[in-house]
Amino acid sequence: MKTIRVSVPGRICLFGEHQDYLKLPTITAAINLRVEVSGSPLKERQILLHLPDIHAEEFISLNNGELAYDQERDYFKSVFNVLRREGLELENGLECTVRGDIPINSGTSSSSALNVAWARFLTMAASSPKPEFSDPAFIARMAYLAEVEEFGEPGGMMDHFATAFGGVLHMEFNSEVKLTSLKNRLKDFVLGDSGQAKDTKWILSHVKDNVLEAVKIIQKREPSFNLMSCPPQDVDHYHSFLTEEQKNVLQGALLNREITKKAKSLFMQDRFDHQAFGHLLSEHHEVLDRWLGISTLKINRMLNAALKAGAYGGKINGSGGGGCMFAYAPHNPQKVAKAIEDAGGKAYIIKVDTGIKEEKV
Fold it and tell me: The whole model's pTM is what?
């Protein structure tokens, strides 16, 4: 086996935040901030991981059974375990280095990108590769299982497919994930990291649990109710038997569904309207802030500063409660970046990027 390099992008969720686990559509864009795993064989039956970005190392002893988890979200081991159940075998040990420039724990899918990159690295290192090991959809599913199902987390599959495939994607979530690649006519964005830590697990479960409980309550009275077809204005009909919190997050889910439909139509037009795109981003943010309550005062300040500096629109990115926002700035990204930094954020000028990149050297 030669030295292997795999890199995977982060992502921004353009439309459909908090929708994938409700089986509602989303639109994502991969970005040119990436995580890379590189490595080569070791004779010893072990995996040595160098993690210079966080000044750490991990050591995994390979054996004939499942790897025991030693910490919360023990992703290097969970990816290995999930792939091993699918027939992964390693003839040698591995010495690897993991580096990246995706902001960590800030809503740009650093953990999902890491899991996708690690899954693809291991499948490339397999002693007997299977045909499906090179399929981005397979890699995305394995990364999802390792990150979400293995640890009982509340998230969905959107991030794993967005980072594995790259580009601009419309996703539908039924028994299988249906991907539609949208023509990328997008220009520069400015990503702004607020530096505010966020509790992704709590926020996801808070929003998800309340929406699903609201649906359950309504369906007991109206068995035909479903999230794909209910008009947003009909939420008022359920006031008397939903809590205020349940009503709010349900209203938000339905409004976001409609915004995502508008956005898909925009991408399908012959002439792309950049200003309309920006307005839809800001409309989406208003829903996330007002109805789901996932934005923060600092992120709102950063967004307002970006708009005053000439951005066409923007929104919070990821699960919320902190982390990142982004603004669409096709003509003046440097000015928008400065405005975001003056408002207390760390700014990155970013573009849409491709998915998994791999090589053996």
Answer: 0.95
**82 with 146: CB under 8 angstroms?**
yes
Q: What's 292's DSSP letter?
A: I
- Write the pLDDT tens digit of every residue in 74-103: 999 999 999 999 999 999 999 999 999 999
Same domain, 13 and 106: yes
Rama region for 176: left / alpha / beta (φ>0; ψ in -120 to 50; rest): beta
Q: Is the pLDDT of residue 192 over 90?
A: yes
- 222's CB contacts (< 8 A; 6+ apart) are none
pLDDT over 90, % of the chain: 90
The H or E element that residue 82 is part of is helix 75-85
Q: Are residues 111 and 195 in the same domain?
A: no
DSSP-derived 3-state class of residue 224: coil
Domain that holds residue 140: 4-185+355-360
Main-chain phi, psi angles of 2, to 5 degrees: -85, 175
Domain identity same for 155 and 10: yes
* Total domain count, the chain: 2
For 50-76, what is each residue's pLDDT tens digit?
999 999 999 999 977 899 999 999 999
The verdict on 146 and 238 lying in the same domain is no
